[in-house]
Design a protein that fits this description.
The chain is α/β, with parallel strands linked by helices and 259 residues long. It has two domains: 194 residues, 2-enoyl-CoA Hydratase, Chain A, domain 1 (Alpha-Beta Complex); 47 residues, Lyase 2-enoyl-coa Hydratase, Chain  A, domain 2. It contains eleven helices and nine strands. The two termini are 27 Å apart.
Length: 259
């Protein structure tokens, strides 16, 4: 596919998706979301995924001019979410490979949701998260109303959504929205190093971990244990599990291949 708004490449088992509208702070259009979905479906030769933004921002939110182009703002917003943005967020959250978000500048609106759907979020010191919707008379979307209360509790989620204030780096770490905060010059290397570390792991087991963690948010304790048992039965048959057990018994470092 000839991408217009993103870049996509695979280097050392890491598939990197770069949002590439720096002049618009990587504001997301429906077409851009579709390109990201295509890239996410083209990672057969990768073992981890890195999502990043070109220029000064990760993603400043949805491109409102693109959404409102058809003259009916309500239907335009609904169609963009139902057909483009929501499927993208689900593709990230449910992808079989681990996903790292490399965040600089704003991760606002749907950009915040993309970061939340990722498995790891590495942010630079000047970055911030923002539920910007209240400032323009709209409501949070992209799954934020489901994910945020589970991460930070209802009170904090209500505060973020109804007050629309920036959540800066250190507070994001304290709230559990991000995993690591680093100086801007270190961001690219730190994010790629984490993606490489995940790519060197037992890829199929990591995918099962993701699925169980996601399912556990909606399942009971006992139901989650049943899901874990099923996943363990499958994981135990993989080549990586055989290698991991042999390495453990042989007191050496495992060399996982993703099989």
């Amino acid at each position: 596919m000839n991408y217009q708004s993103i870049r996509f490449d695979i280097t050392r088992d890491v598939a990197t998706i770069t949002l590439n509208r720096p002049e618009k702070l990587n504001a997301l259009t429906p077409d851009m979301a579709d390109e990201m979905r295509h890239a996410l479906s083209s990672c057969e030769d990768a073992r981890a995924i890195l999502i990043r933004g070109e220029g000064r921002a990760f993603c400043s939110g949805a491109d409102l001019s693109a959404i409102m182009a058809n003259g009916d703002p309500g239907e335009g917003a609904y169609e963009a979410l139902a057909k483009h943005y929501n499927p993208l967020v689900l593709d990230i959250a449910q992808h079989a490979l681990p996903v790292v978000a490399e965040v600089k500048g704003p991760a606002a609106g749907i950009g915040f949701s993309i970061a939340l759907a990722s498995d790891f979020c590495i942010i630079e010191e000047a970055a911030y998260f923002l539920q910007a919707f209240v400032n323009i008379g709209l409501v949070p979307d992209g799954g934020a109303s489901w994910m945020l209360p589970r991460l930070v509790g209802k009170s904090r989620a209500t505060e973020m959504m109804m007050l629309g204030e920036k959540i800066h780096c250190r507070q994001a770490i304290e709230l559990g929205l991000a995993h690591r905060c680093v100086p801007e010059p270190m961001l690219v290397n730190e994010a790629f190093a984490l993606a490489q570390r995940l790519a060197a792991g037992p890829t199929r087991a990591l995918g099962m971990m993701k699925a169980n963690l996601f399912a556990a948010l909606d399942h009971s304790y006992s139901a989650t244990m049943a899901l874990e048992a099923e996943a363990q039965r499958e994981a135990a048959t993989t080549e990586d599990a055989k290698e991991g057990i042999a390495a453990f018994l042989g007191k050496r470092k495992a060399a996982f291949k993703g099989h």
